[in-house]
Each structure stands twice: as C-alpha cells, then as structure tokens.
Amino acid sequence: MRPTSVPTLFCLILFCSNHHPTVSADTTNAEKPTPLILEKNDGERREWRVVEGYVGPPMEHFNIKVDPQNGGSSHLVFITEDLEAGGKIDMHRHPGADEILFLQNGTARVTLADSSKEVHGGATVFIPANTWISMTNIGSESIHFVAVFSAPGFEEYMRAESVREGERNTPLSKAEDEEIMRKCAHAVIYK
Predict the structure, then answer these.
(1) What CATH number has the domain bearing residue 150?
(2) What are the tens digits of pLDDT across the range 126-144?
(3) Residue numbers of the chain with a pLDDT score lower than 70
(4) What's the domain count of the chain?
C-alpha cells in the first residue's frame, strides 16, 4: 500500500517517504511539545530483544515517532512496526490507553476481546483500554502497521524490551523479562 493512502489523521503526524536517512527526533524538550515532520524512517528506531529460549520468526524493528521523549507529547504515542510472515503479537491488553492499529498492507488474523477476524491492508482496529488483543500475520509478506495510543506508557515497555538500531542486541533472561513486565504492568499485561 502506498503511503498516500494513510488516513489524513496519520498524514498530519507522519509524512512517509523511502528516500531519507534515519534521524532521531528532538528529545531535549519533554515539557513543551515540539512540532515534528518525520519521514518514513525518521524517529527512534529500535530492535526487539528476544527472551532466552524464544523460538519463532525473527523479531522485527519498530520506530517510536511521537511520545513524551520524541516531540514531547503528553497525550499521544505514535509507533510504526513490521510483523514478519508468521509473526505474532501475543494476547495482551493496555490498562490505561486506547489503541488504534492501522495495517498498511498484508493479511492478519486479529483477535479482539471475544471475536476473531481476518483483516487486510487498509484495515483499522480500535482497541479500547483493557480490551484483550492479539494479531498474527497469516500472509506471505511482512505487514507494516502503525499504532496510536491515547496515553503514554506502552512505549516504556517497548524501550525496556529493545535496543536502539545498531546497538548490541543480546537476549533477555526470563528474570529480566519478568521484571520489565512487573514494572510496566500499568501499561501492558500479557496472558
């Protein structure tokens, strides 16, 4: 799907392009929001760390575009991420934030509360706070999606479970993962 098909709301936050190098957004002013215009690869690019013993598709990278550290937003978090073919986002819920997922391409099985549905590129999924959600890429291509949260919190978990792109990426021990989950229970709870 071409970036120009992203809804207007997302276009106001993010202008997509494939032709510019990665740069980090200004993180020096968390008190006063800073207007941002970010290209597709701009933002805080990070790579997931795996938990020791993980078996499955390779973990992908994600990009924190707007949050309290990137742009100084105290009310909004905007993230882009890829999900490899066969990849899964495990069942979880966000106690303190609504979330919107927008799939830019691909085919996924989304389970939301007590229902499950196959969705395709262009699909929007609204997840009210405290609603259980999981997603599996059931297609043959990597899914590119955006996530918007109504309140900060989940990005703290994402940072704790990842490294900046290019940094040494070592597996998390099960004890480290459990400690991160305990500290971030205000933002995310996994089944």
Answers:
(1) 2.60.120.10
(2) 999 999 999 999 999 999 9
(3) 1-31, 57-58
(4) 1
Which pair of structure tokens corresponds to residue 26? 């200004």
pLDDT for the residue 15: 32
Sign of the CA dihedral with 13 first, then 16, 22, and 23 last = negative
What residues make up the domain containing 149?
3-190
Q: 52 Cβ partners below 8 Å, 6+ apart?
A: 171, 172, 173, 174
Verdict on whether the full-model pTM lies above 0.90: no
Question: Is the separation of the CB atoms in 4 and 44 below 8 Å?
Answer: no
- For residue 151, give the DSSP letter: S
Amino acid at residue number 119: V
| 170 touches 52 (CB < 8 A) | no
Residue 174 near residue 53 (C-beta atoms within 8 A): yes
Maximum separation of any 2 CA atoms in the chain, in Å: 43
C-beta neighbour count of 8 within 10 angstroms: 6
CA atoms within 13 A on the CB side of 172: 19
